Amino acid sequence: MSSKTLTSIGPANRIARSEETHPLTWRLRDDAQPVWLEEYQAKNGYAAARKALGEMAQADIVQTVKDSGLKGRGGAGFPTGVKWGLMPADESMNIRYLLCNADEMEPNTWKDRMLMEQLPHLLVEGMLISARALKAYRGYIFLRGEYVDAAANLNRAIEEAKAAGLLGKNILGSGFDFELFVHTGAGRYICGEETALINSLEGRRANPRSKPPFPAAVGVWGKPTCVNNVETLCNVPAIVANGVDWYKTLARPGSEDMGTKLMGFSGKVKNPGLWELPFGLPARELFEDYAGGMRDGYKLKCWQPGGAGTGFLLPEHLDALMYAGGIGKVGTRMGTGLALAVDDSVNMVSLLRNMEEFFARESCGWCTPCRDGLPWSVKILRALERGQGTQQDIDTLLGLVNFLGPGKTFCAHAPGAVEPLGSAIKYFRPEFEAGVASNSAPATTGQFAPA
Q1: Carries keyword Translocase (predicted)?
Q2: I need a labelling partner for 33 at 20 to 30 A (CA). Which of 82, 117, 261, 400 fits?
Q3: Taking the complete model, does pTM exceed 0.90, yes or no?
Protein backbone atom coordinates (compact mmCIF):
# COMPACT_ATOMS: atom_id res chain seq x y z
CA MET A 1 0.00 0.00 0.00
CA SER A 2 1.28 3.47 -0.86
CA SER A 3 2.91 5.51 1.88
CA LYS A 4 0.70 8.39 0.70
CA THR A 5 -2.50 6.77 1.92
CA LEU A 6 -4.30 8.92 4.48
CA THR A 7 -7.26 6.88 5.57
CA SER A 8 -9.29 4.05 4.18
CA ILE A 9 -12.53 2.31 5.03
CA GLY A 10 -12.01 -1.42 5.24
CA PRO A 11 -9.00 -3.57 6.07
CA ALA A 12 -6.39 -1.20 4.71
CA ASN A 13 -3.74 0.05 7.12
CA ARG A 14 -3.96 3.57 8.49
CA ILE A 15 -0.95 5.82 8.91
CA ALA A 16 -0.31 9.24 10.42
CA ARG A 17 -2.04 12.30 9.06
CA SER A 18 -1.04 15.93 9.41
CA GLU A 19 -3.19 18.72 10.84
CA GLU A 20 -1.55 21.14 8.40
CA THR A 21 -2.35 19.12 5.28
CA HIS A 22 -5.34 16.90 6.12
CA PRO A 23 -7.92 19.08 7.88
CA LEU A 24 -10.76 16.58 7.58
CA THR A 25 -9.08 13.37 8.65
CA TRP A 26 -6.06 14.07 10.88
CA ARG A 27 -8.10 13.42 14.04
CA LEU A 28 -9.22 9.93 12.96
CA ARG A 29 -8.31 7.08 15.29
CA ASP A 30 -6.32 4.13 13.98
CA ASP A 31 -8.94 1.75 15.39
CA ALA A 32 -11.75 3.53 13.48
CA GLN A 33 -13.68 4.23 16.70
CA PRO A 34 -15.55 7.54 17.10
CA VAL A 35 -13.68 10.55 18.44
CA TRP A 36 -15.79 11.80 21.36
CA LEU A 37 -15.74 15.22 22.96
CA GLU A 38 -12.81 14.84 25.37
CA GLU A 39 -10.49 13.50 22.68
CA TYR A 40 -11.83 15.92 20.07
CA GLN A 41 -11.07 18.91 22.31
CA ALA A 42 -7.63 17.50 23.08
CA LYS A 43 -7.06 17.55 19.32
CA ASN A 44 -7.90 21.25 19.02
CA GLY A 45 -11.62 20.60 18.63
CA TYR A 46 -13.95 23.60 19.06
CA ALA A 47 -10.99 26.01 19.01
CA ALA A 48 -12.30 27.36 15.70
CA ALA A 49 -15.79 27.72 17.19
CA ARG A 50 -14.37 29.72 20.11
CA LYS A 51 -12.57 31.98 17.65
CA ALA A 52 -15.64 32.42 15.44
CA LEU A 53 -18.01 33.18 18.31
CA GLY A 54 -15.59 35.18 20.43
CA GLU A 55 -13.41 37.09 17.98
CA MET A 56 -15.16 37.31 14.59
CA ALA A 57 -18.17 39.23 13.38
CA GLN A 58 -20.82 37.30 11.49
CA ALA A 59 -19.94 39.02 8.22
CA ASP A 60 -16.25 38.22 8.72
CA ILE A 61 -16.98 34.49 8.92
CA VAL A 62 -18.98 34.66 5.68
CA GLN A 63 -16.23 36.61 3.95
CA THR A 64 -13.54 34.21 5.15
CA VAL A 65 -15.39 31.21 3.73
CA LYS A 66 -16.06 33.09 0.51
CA ASP A 67 -12.40 34.10 0.12
CA SER A 68 -11.24 30.53 0.80
CA GLY A 69 -12.87 29.28 -2.39
CA LEU A 70 -14.66 26.46 -0.57
CA LYS A 71 -17.24 24.85 -2.85
CA GLY A 72 -20.05 22.42 -2.09
CA ARG A 73 -18.84 18.84 -1.69
CA GLY A 74 -22.17 17.15 -2.41
CA GLY A 75 -21.62 17.06 -6.17
CA ALA A 76 -22.87 20.40 -7.50
CA GLY A 77 -19.79 22.40 -6.47
CA PHE A 78 -21.51 25.75 -5.85
CA PRO A 79 -19.31 28.27 -3.96
CA THR A 80 -20.22 28.00 -0.28
CA GLY A 81 -19.54 31.61 0.67
CA VAL A 82 -21.62 32.85 -2.24
CA LYS A 83 -24.48 30.62 -1.12
CA TRP A 84 -24.20 31.97 2.40
CA GLY A 85 -24.27 35.49 1.02
CA LEU A 86 -27.69 34.87 -0.52
CA MET A 87 -29.26 34.78 2.95
CA PRO A 88 -31.16 38.04 3.59
CA ALA A 89 -29.39 40.71 5.58
CA ASP A 90 -32.69 42.02 6.97
CA GLU A 91 -32.40 41.64 10.75
CA SER A 92 -36.18 41.50 11.11
CA MET A 93 -36.06 38.06 9.46
CA ASN A 94 -34.63 36.57 12.62
CA ILE A 95 -35.96 33.03 12.15
CA ARG A 96 -33.65 31.19 9.79
CA TYR A 97 -32.37 27.65 9.50
CA LEU A 98 -29.23 25.71 8.62
CA LEU A 99 -29.81 22.27 7.12
CA CYS A 100 -27.11 19.65 6.66
CA ASN A 101 -27.72 17.41 3.66
CA ALA A 102 -26.62 14.00 4.96
CA ASP A 103 -28.96 12.00 2.72
CA GLU A 104 -26.03 10.21 1.10
CA MET A 105 -27.86 7.88 -1.30
CA GLU A 106 -25.75 8.33 -4.44
CA PRO A 107 -24.68 4.81 -5.45
CA ASN A 108 -20.96 4.24 -4.87
CA THR A 109 -20.66 7.13 -2.42
CA TRP A 110 -19.91 6.77 1.29
CA LYS A 111 -17.64 9.69 2.20
CA ASP A 112 -20.06 11.52 4.52
CA ARG A 113 -20.77 8.31 6.41
CA MET A 114 -17.14 8.08 7.51
CA LEU A 115 -17.14 11.66 8.81
CA MET A 116 -20.39 11.26 10.72
CA GLU A 117 -19.56 7.90 12.24
CA GLN A 118 -15.97 8.63 13.24
CA LEU A 119 -15.81 12.44 13.63
CA PRO A 120 -19.32 13.52 14.65
CA HIS A 121 -18.05 16.53 16.59
CA LEU A 122 -16.35 17.89 13.46
CA LEU A 123 -19.76 18.19 11.82
CA VAL A 124 -21.31 19.67 14.98
CA GLU A 125 -18.56 22.29 15.16
CA GLY A 126 -18.84 23.05 11.46
CA MET A 127 -22.58 23.58 11.81
CA LEU A 128 -22.15 25.75 14.91
CA ILE A 129 -19.74 28.11 13.12
CA SER A 130 -21.85 28.13 9.96
CA ALA A 131 -25.02 28.85 11.95
CA ARG A 132 -23.28 31.81 13.59
CA ALA A 133 -22.30 33.11 10.16
CA LEU A 134 -25.86 32.72 8.88
CA LYS A 135 -27.59 33.91 12.08
CA ALA A 136 -29.47 30.61 12.14
CA TYR A 137 -30.88 29.67 15.52
CA ARG A 138 -31.77 26.08 14.65
CA GLY A 139 -30.13 23.37 12.57
CA TYR A 140 -31.17 19.96 11.28
CA ILE A 141 -29.01 17.10 10.04
CA PHE A 142 -31.18 15.36 7.43
CA LEU A 143 -29.68 11.90 7.60
CA ARG A 144 -30.09 8.87 5.38
CA GLY A 145 -32.28 6.49 7.38
CA GLU A 146 -30.01 3.49 6.80
CA TYR A 147 -27.11 5.24 8.56
CA VAL A 148 -28.04 3.87 11.98
CA ASP A 149 -24.55 4.13 13.49
CA ALA A 150 -24.13 7.68 12.20
CA ALA A 151 -27.45 8.68 13.79
CA ALA A 152 -26.45 7.23 17.16
CA ASN A 153 -23.02 8.87 17.08
CA LEU A 154 -24.34 12.26 16.00
CA ASN A 155 -27.00 12.24 18.71
CA ARG A 156 -24.40 11.38 21.34
CA ALA A 157 -22.11 14.15 20.07
CA ILE A 158 -24.97 16.66 20.23
CA GLU A 159 -25.74 15.68 23.81
CA GLU A 160 -22.05 15.98 24.74
CA ALA A 161 -21.89 19.43 23.13
CA LYS A 162 -25.01 20.55 24.98
CA ALA A 163 -23.62 19.42 28.32
CA ALA A 164 -20.39 21.33 27.62
CA GLY A 165 -22.21 24.55 26.73
CA LEU A 166 -21.30 24.26 23.04
CA LEU A 167 -24.93 24.07 21.92
CA GLY A 168 -28.07 25.65 23.35
CA LYS A 169 -28.42 29.10 24.89
CA ASN A 170 -25.67 31.75 25.09
CA ILE A 171 -23.01 29.46 23.65
CA LEU A 172 -19.55 30.18 25.10
CA GLY A 173 -20.95 33.40 26.56
CA SER A 174 -21.36 34.89 23.10
CA GLY A 175 -25.08 35.57 23.33
CA PHE A 176 -25.64 33.27 20.35
CA ASP A 177 -28.24 30.49 20.64
CA PHE A 178 -28.22 27.39 18.45
CA GLU A 179 -30.14 24.12 18.67
CA LEU A 180 -29.23 21.10 16.56
CA PHE A 181 -31.31 18.03 15.74
CA VAL A 182 -30.85 14.80 13.77
CA HIS A 183 -33.74 13.97 11.43
CA THR A 184 -33.62 10.58 9.73
CA GLY A 185 -35.17 10.26 6.30
CA ALA A 186 -37.43 7.53 4.98
CA GLY A 187 -35.08 6.37 2.24
CA ARG A 188 -35.63 8.35 -0.96
CA TYR A 189 -32.74 9.32 -3.23
CA ILE A 190 -34.59 12.44 -4.38
CA CYS A 191 -34.19 13.91 -0.87
CA GLY A 192 -30.60 14.68 -1.83
CA GLU A 193 -32.07 17.55 -3.87
CA GLU A 194 -32.21 20.42 -1.40
CA THR A 195 -35.80 21.51 -1.94
CA ALA A 196 -37.09 17.92 -1.88
CA LEU A 197 -35.18 17.57 1.39
CA ILE A 198 -36.97 20.65 2.72
CA ASN A 199 -40.37 19.28 1.73
CA SER A 200 -39.60 15.98 3.41
CA LEU A 201 -38.40 17.71 6.58
CA GLU A 202 -41.71 19.56 6.69
CA GLY A 203 -43.59 16.26 6.45
CA ARG A 204 -44.59 16.73 2.82
CA ARG A 205 -44.06 14.53 -0.23
CA ALA A 206 -40.41 14.70 -1.27
CA ASN A 207 -40.87 16.56 -4.55
CA PRO A 208 -38.42 19.27 -5.62
CA ARG A 209 -39.72 22.83 -5.50
CA SER A 210 -39.76 25.36 -8.30
CA LYS A 211 -36.92 27.87 -8.05
CA PRO A 212 -37.04 30.81 -7.61
CA PRO A 213 -37.77 31.47 -4.82
CA PHE A 214 -34.59 29.85 -3.59
CA PRO A 215 -34.31 28.38 -0.08
CA ALA A 216 -32.22 31.36 1.05
CA ALA A 217 -35.38 33.45 0.71
CA VAL A 218 -38.15 30.89 1.24
CA GLY A 219 -36.96 27.62 2.71
CA VAL A 220 -38.11 25.33 5.49
CA TRP A 221 -41.45 26.51 6.91
CA GLY A 222 -41.19 29.55 4.65
CA LYS A 223 -38.12 30.96 6.40
CA PRO A 224 -34.63 31.74 5.06
CA THR A 225 -32.70 28.47 4.88
CA CYS A 226 -29.23 27.35 3.86
CA VAL A 227 -28.55 23.74 2.89
CA ASN A 228 -24.95 22.46 2.87
CA ASN A 229 -23.40 19.01 2.48
CA VAL A 230 -21.69 17.18 5.36
CA GLU A 231 -18.18 17.38 3.91
CA THR A 232 -18.69 21.05 3.06
CA LEU A 233 -19.58 21.94 6.64
CA CYS A 234 -16.69 19.85 7.99
CA ASN A 235 -14.24 22.09 6.10
CA VAL A 236 -15.41 25.24 7.88
CA PRO A 237 -13.60 24.84 11.25
CA ALA A 238 -10.16 24.44 9.66
CA ILE A 239 -10.71 27.44 7.37
CA VAL A 240 -11.69 29.63 10.32
CA ALA A 241 -8.84 28.34 12.48
CA ASN A 242 -6.02 28.47 9.93
CA GLY A 243 -7.07 31.15 7.45
CA VAL A 244 -7.66 31.59 3.76
CA ASP A 245 -4.04 31.62 2.58
CA TRP A 246 -3.31 28.28 4.27
CA TYR A 247 -6.43 26.67 2.80
CA LYS A 248 -5.50 27.72 -0.73
CA THR A 249 -2.10 26.01 -0.44
CA LEU A 250 -3.66 22.58 0.06
CA ALA A 251 -4.67 21.97 -3.57
CA ARG A 252 -2.19 20.91 -6.24
CA PRO A 253 -0.93 23.60 -8.63
CA GLY A 254 -3.29 24.02 -11.58
CA SER A 255 -6.45 23.17 -9.67
CA GLU A 256 -9.20 25.75 -9.77
CA ASP A 257 -10.80 24.15 -6.70
CA MET A 258 -9.28 24.89 -3.30
CA GLY A 259 -8.54 22.62 -0.37
CA THR A 260 -8.74 18.87 -0.06
CA LYS A 261 -11.42 16.39 -1.05
CA LEU A 262 -12.45 12.98 0.20
CA MET A 263 -11.83 10.76 -2.82
CA GLY A 264 -12.11 7.03 -3.26
CA PHE A 265 -12.10 4.07 -5.60
CA SER A 266 -14.27 0.96 -5.53
CA GLY A 267 -14.72 -1.99 -7.86
CA LYS A 268 -12.22 -4.75 -8.46
CA VAL A 269 -9.21 -2.71 -7.42
CA LYS A 270 -6.55 -4.05 -5.05
CA ASN A 271 -7.13 -1.47 -2.33
CA PRO A 272 -10.66 -0.04 -2.45
CA GLY A 273 -10.93 2.82 -0.02
CA LEU A 274 -11.45 6.46 0.87
CA TRP A 275 -8.71 9.06 1.25
CA GLU A 276 -8.42 12.78 1.88
CA LEU A 277 -6.42 14.13 -1.05
CA PRO A 278 -5.63 17.53 -2.58
CA PHE A 279 -7.71 18.81 -5.47
CA GLY A 280 -5.78 18.61 -8.73
CA LEU A 281 -4.45 15.11 -8.09
CA PRO A 282 -4.22 13.11 -11.34
CA ALA A 283 -6.87 10.40 -11.47
CA ARG A 284 -4.12 7.95 -12.41
CA GLU A 285 -2.38 8.61 -9.09
CA LEU A 286 -5.63 7.97 -7.24
CA PHE A 287 -6.19 4.75 -9.20
CA GLU A 288 -2.64 3.35 -9.17
CA ASP A 289 -0.95 4.70 -6.03
CA TYR A 290 -3.91 4.69 -3.66
CA ALA A 291 -6.32 2.08 -5.02
CA GLY A 292 -3.42 -0.10 -6.18
CA GLY A 293 -4.70 -0.64 -9.72
CA MET A 294 -6.85 -3.57 -10.80
CA ARG A 295 -6.76 -6.92 -9.04
CA ASP A 296 -4.77 -9.64 -10.72
CA GLY A 297 -6.68 -11.15 -13.62
CA TYR A 298 -8.80 -8.05 -14.27
CA LYS A 299 -8.33 -5.19 -16.69
CA LEU A 300 -9.76 -1.68 -16.39
CA LYS A 301 -12.50 -1.21 -18.97
CA CYS A 302 -13.83 2.18 -17.90
CA TRP A 303 -14.45 4.24 -14.76
CA GLN A 304 -16.79 6.79 -13.27
CA PRO A 305 -15.17 9.71 -11.44
CA GLY A 306 -17.79 10.49 -8.82
CA GLY A 307 -20.89 8.37 -8.27
CA ALA A 308 -23.47 6.68 -10.48
CA GLY A 309 -24.72 9.97 -11.89
CA THR A 310 -21.46 10.81 -13.66
CA GLY A 311 -20.41 9.72 -17.13
CA PHE A 312 -18.08 6.84 -17.92
CA LEU A 313 -14.50 7.54 -18.88
CA LEU A 314 -11.87 5.34 -20.54
CA PRO A 315 -8.47 4.27 -19.14
CA GLU A 316 -6.75 6.96 -21.21
CA HIS A 317 -8.74 9.58 -19.29
CA LEU A 318 -6.91 8.68 -16.07
CA ASP A 319 -4.50 11.53 -16.77
CA ALA A 320 -7.31 14.01 -16.04
CA LEU A 321 -6.91 16.07 -12.88
CA MET A 322 -9.36 15.47 -10.04
CA TYR A 323 -11.13 18.78 -9.77
CA ALA A 324 -14.32 20.02 -11.41
CA GLY A 325 -12.65 21.69 -14.39
CA GLY A 326 -10.15 18.88 -14.89
CA ILE A 327 -12.82 16.20 -15.12
CA GLY A 328 -14.99 18.56 -17.15
CA LYS A 329 -12.29 18.68 -19.83
CA VAL A 330 -12.75 14.96 -20.52
CA GLY A 331 -16.51 15.20 -20.80
CA THR A 332 -18.19 14.58 -17.47
CA ARG A 333 -18.45 15.83 -13.88
CA MET A 334 -16.38 15.12 -10.79
CA GLY A 335 -19.53 14.59 -8.75
CA THR A 336 -18.82 13.24 -5.28
CA GLY A 337 -15.22 12.29 -6.08
CA LEU A 338 -15.66 8.60 -5.31
CA ALA A 339 -14.72 6.67 -8.42
CA LEU A 340 -15.83 3.25 -9.66
CA ALA A 341 -13.56 0.95 -11.65
CA VAL A 342 -15.45 -1.22 -14.17
CA ASP A 343 -13.53 -4.33 -15.14
CA ASP A 344 -13.44 -6.05 -18.52
CA SER A 345 -15.81 -8.82 -17.43
CA VAL A 346 -18.76 -6.41 -17.12
CA ASN A 347 -21.35 -6.08 -19.88
CA MET A 348 -22.23 -2.41 -20.20
CA VAL A 349 -25.85 -3.05 -21.17
CA SER A 350 -26.42 -5.01 -17.97
CA LEU A 351 -24.60 -2.41 -15.90
CA LEU A 352 -26.68 0.43 -17.35
CA ARG A 353 -29.90 -1.52 -16.98
CA ASN A 354 -29.14 -1.92 -13.29
CA MET A 355 -28.32 1.78 -12.89
CA GLU A 356 -31.37 3.02 -14.76
CA GLU A 357 -33.64 0.73 -12.73
CA PHE A 358 -32.38 2.50 -9.63
CA PHE A 359 -32.85 5.98 -11.07
CA ALA A 360 -36.31 5.14 -12.46
CA ARG A 361 -37.41 3.78 -9.09
CA GLU A 362 -36.12 6.84 -7.25
CA SER A 363 -37.80 9.41 -9.50
CA CYS A 364 -40.35 11.44 -7.56
CA GLY A 365 -42.66 11.32 -10.60
CA TRP A 366 -43.25 15.07 -10.59
CA CYS A 367 -42.28 15.86 -14.20
CA THR A 368 -43.16 13.86 -17.29
CA PRO A 369 -39.70 13.45 -18.92
CA CYS A 370 -38.26 11.85 -15.80
CA ARG A 371 -41.39 9.92 -14.75
CA ASP A 372 -41.91 8.33 -18.18
CA GLY A 373 -38.48 8.58 -19.79
CA LEU A 374 -36.47 6.65 -17.22
CA PRO A 375 -38.78 3.59 -17.15
CA TRP A 376 -38.76 3.69 -20.94
CA SER A 377 -34.96 3.47 -20.94
CA VAL A 378 -35.16 0.50 -18.55
CA LYS A 379 -37.62 -1.31 -20.84
CA ILE A 380 -35.33 -0.86 -23.84
CA LEU A 381 -32.20 -1.89 -21.91
CA ARG A 382 -33.93 -5.04 -20.68
CA ALA A 383 -34.81 -5.94 -24.27
CA LEU A 384 -31.24 -5.34 -25.43
CA GLU A 385 -29.91 -7.39 -22.53
CA ARG A 386 -32.08 -10.33 -23.64
CA GLY A 387 -31.02 -9.92 -27.27
CA GLN A 388 -34.56 -8.85 -28.23
CA GLY A 389 -33.90 -5.20 -29.10
CA THR A 390 -34.79 -3.44 -32.33
CA GLN A 391 -32.65 -1.48 -34.75
CA GLN A 392 -34.09 1.84 -33.58
CA ASP A 393 -33.68 1.16 -29.84
CA ILE A 394 -30.24 2.73 -29.59
CA ASP A 395 -31.41 5.90 -31.34
CA THR A 396 -34.35 5.98 -28.96
CA LEU A 397 -32.00 5.73 -25.99
CA LEU A 398 -29.88 8.57 -27.35
CA GLY A 399 -33.06 10.58 -27.86
CA LEU A 400 -33.97 10.04 -24.23
CA VAL A 401 -30.48 11.16 -23.19
CA ASN A 402 -31.16 14.39 -25.06
CA PHE A 403 -34.73 14.92 -23.87
CA LEU A 404 -33.83 14.26 -20.21
CA GLY A 405 -30.70 16.40 -20.28
CA PRO A 406 -29.85 19.52 -18.26
CA GLY A 407 -32.51 22.21 -18.27
CA LYS A 408 -35.25 19.96 -19.63
CA THR A 409 -36.57 18.49 -16.39
CA PHE A 410 -37.77 19.93 -13.09
CA CYS A 411 -34.59 19.05 -11.19
CA ALA A 412 -31.18 17.44 -11.82
CA HIS A 413 -32.29 13.85 -11.14
CA ALA A 414 -32.96 12.84 -14.75
CA PRO A 415 -29.89 14.58 -16.25
CA GLY A 416 -27.71 12.71 -13.76
CA ALA A 417 -29.51 9.47 -14.52
CA VAL A 418 -28.94 9.62 -18.29
CA GLU A 419 -25.37 10.96 -18.25
CA PRO A 420 -23.83 7.50 -17.70
CA LEU A 421 -26.18 6.04 -20.32
CA GLY A 422 -25.09 8.51 -23.00
CA SER A 423 -21.40 7.99 -22.26
CA ALA A 424 -21.76 4.19 -22.26
CA ILE A 425 -23.34 4.23 -25.72
CA LYS A 426 -20.66 6.66 -26.91
CA TYR A 427 -17.77 4.42 -25.89
CA PHE A 428 -19.31 0.94 -26.05
CA ARG A 429 -21.97 1.13 -28.76
CA PRO A 430 -21.14 -2.33 -30.17
CA GLU A 431 -22.24 -3.92 -26.87
CA PHE A 432 -25.63 -2.24 -27.25
CA GLU A 433 -25.87 -3.19 -30.93
CA ALA A 434 -25.18 -6.82 -29.96
CA GLY A 435 -28.55 -6.84 -28.20
CA VAL A 436 -30.50 -6.14 -31.39
CA ALA A 437 -32.47 -9.19 -32.53
CA SER A 438 -31.32 -10.62 -35.87
CA ASN A 439 -34.83 -10.37 -37.34
CA SER A 440 -35.29 -6.69 -36.34
CA ALA A 441 -36.36 -4.28 -39.06
CA PRO A 442 -33.79 -1.64 -40.11
CA ALA A 443 -33.83 1.56 -38.08
CA THR A 444 -35.55 4.66 -39.42
CA THR A 445 -34.87 8.18 -38.21
CA GLY A 446 -37.91 9.22 -36.22
CA GLN A 447 -39.01 11.69 -33.60
CA PHE A 448 -36.80 10.14 -30.92
CA ALA A 449 -33.50 10.48 -32.77
CA PRO A 450 -31.02 12.66 -30.89
CA ALA A 451 -31.22 16.34 -31.71
Answers
A1: yes
A2: 261
A3: yes
